[in-house]
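Problem 12. The chain below contains 193 residues. Write out its predicted structure in token notation.
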Amino acid sequence: MSDPIRTALFGGTFNPLHNGHIAIAESVLEQGLADEVWMLITPCNPWKADQTLMNDRLRYDMVAEAVKDISGVTASDYEFRLPKPSFTANTLRHISTDYPDREFILTIGADNWVKFHDWRESDFIMDNYRIIIYPRQGYPITDVPENATLLDCPLMDISSTQIRRMVKKGEPIDKLVPPSVARFIGSGNSPER
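Solution.
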């Protein structure tokens, strides 16, 4: 039997996807931490349940277009068919059953890592899955358990919140997002919907 495919799950609302997200996915692959990265578009993050999001399918289309030429990176709408909000432990249980040929690795930011103990069923996740933690400004990581890896990735001072504010003010976002995302938003698909 062959080794399982190591699949890094990089979940987020991606409202919108930006260059920081792309850099993280590429770093995971470049550092050999996974064989592939699935950009898992989340329809409803329990930490952001009150956030107004661009339509799920539009966000999926935006991510799919942005990553289509990046080898090893794929957009995934897997959580669209799961109950909302999207609890990570629930997603991991379902996706592991549906794809038994893969070893799923959770990819999260340092901002989520510092509150990971508050996640629903965090012990289940820690006991059953490896975790990749990427750096976020203002969230120093000092304690990395054995089944986790701190991603060696430059700190990028970009956030989807910042981009949404810029879009609202009519400011250019070209340097912060992939060209396809800038075109997507420029054609009237506002992340403020």
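Discussion. The chain has one domain: 5-186. Students who got a different answer should revisit the alignment rule from Section 12.3.
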